[in-house]
Design brief:
single chain, mainly alpha, Serine Threonine Protein Phosphatase 5, Tetratricopeptide repeat, 2 domains, about 50% helix, about 0% strand
Amino acid sequence: MLVLIAVAALIGVSLVLVQGHRATLASQLLHQAIAERDLEGLEELLSMGADIEALDAGGFTPLNTAVTSDSIEVADLLLQHGADLASPIGKTELPCLHWVTQKGSTAMMRLLLKSSADADAFSAKYGTPLFLALHGERKLSLLLDY
């Protein structure tokens, strides 16, 4: 991954949007680094100005990808760089914390809550994370701690 980043920098690939398209080389590299859990490459891309909210072909932000693949360290790094906790997971319309409450790990849920995810956030379609925890009987005690 670092070789691709170095080549992109050498040939002068811009990390800004080109003609309004969100799918730039930088965002593709960013999503690739996340898929590979390449923290060093991810940090380098972010320092070069890669869009932390760039959508992949499935409509996932980098944080969405990290959350749904239970990549705690990647999610933590993205959150340190200001990733949006409220962005819905792809086309599900579920905010990250709602998704994790239903399908994710308690470790990811703890990271999101410690990163100021709103435990009381209301979704018209899904209610609150607490409602989802009650309904699915998952992670109830962790939500009650926040």
